[in-house]
Amino acid sequence: QVQLVESGGGLVQAGDSLRLSCAFSGRTFSSYAMGWFRQAPGKEREFVAAVTRSSNTYYTDSVKGRFTISRDNAKNLVYLQMNSLEPEDTAIYYCAAGNQQSGLGSAASYDYWGQGTQVTVSS
What we know:
123 residues; mainly beta; seven-stranded mixed β-sheet
């Protein structure tokens, strides 16, 4: 069984940085692709970033150059480093894990989800 727990969310000002963490509990973390999604009030859940088991990374256009996803297989952790935060980044951020290594921009590619962590960016 796999469980995911996000942490690191909070209230920050525009231009600030924040690092989210996702702790993976279960077997063979290194075999999973990991992703971050977010959902703002009144909006659909959207893809943010993903990293494959080979450490290939993917980002939605709105966060390219600002966000960095990474993984530490020794610690079963995935991170989302968020820089130059904007009010539009305000959302609940969810960590996800899946066996698929392609199509990672789709939530359907993931099998497990965390409970989410709130990120609020004030102007």
